[in-house]
Amino acid sequence: MAGFQLRRSLLYVPGNMPSMLQNIPIFQCDGVMIDLEDAVPLSEKDAARSLVRSFLQTYTERNKEVLVRINALDTKWGHDDLKAVLPALPDGIRLPKADRPEIVETLDTLLTEFEEELGLEIGRFRILPSIESAEGVINCIKTARSTKRLIGLAFGAEDYTASLEIERTKRGEELFAARTRVVWACKAAGIQAIDTIFSDAGDMEGLRRETELIKTLGFSGKSLVNPRQIEVIHEVFAPKQAEVDYALQVVEAIQRAREMGTGVISLGGKMVDAPVVKRAVRVLKTAQAHGLIDIELNEEVIYGQE
Ligand SMILES: CC(=O)SCCNC(=O)CCNC(=O)[C@H](O)C(C)(C)COP(=O)(O)OP(=O)(O)OC[C@H]1O[C@@H](n2cnc3c(N)ncnc32)[C@H](O)[C@@H]1OP(=O)(O)O
Ligand SMILES: O=C([O-])CC(=O)C(=O)O
Ligand SMILES: [Mg+2]
Question: Is Transmembrane set as a keyword in this record (predicted)?
Answer without folding.
Answer: no
